[in-house]
Request: fold
Amino acid sequence: VQLVESGGGSVQAGGSLKLSCAASGFIFNACIMAWERQTPGKEREWVSGISSFGTTNYADSVKGRFTISRDNARNTLYLQMNSLKTEDTAEYFCRFSCYNVYYWGQGIQVTVSS
Reply:
């Protein structure tokens, strides 16, 4: 099983990025998926989640700015990030929960400059 994130990078405040998490080796539509982020010296923070039925949830800090989605045909999870703020700077991880087993991607850096 493998999760590979892409789409990170550097952007100015107010800009947008779209993260992707390509999955292989999973029964994709049976998994609950989420995005987490972490900055050095801080605990990892849950950002957003999406159920196998497509129900979405967001942390208050990103609500209205970020959109999580999944494409079951492409086995890919997405996070559209708009109106980015400097405090969104972090390493972002996709997380899959499949039959109560958790898997994480390797992480991808997002840097937002003022």
Remarks:
- The longest strand covers residues 90-98.
- The mean pLDDT is 95.
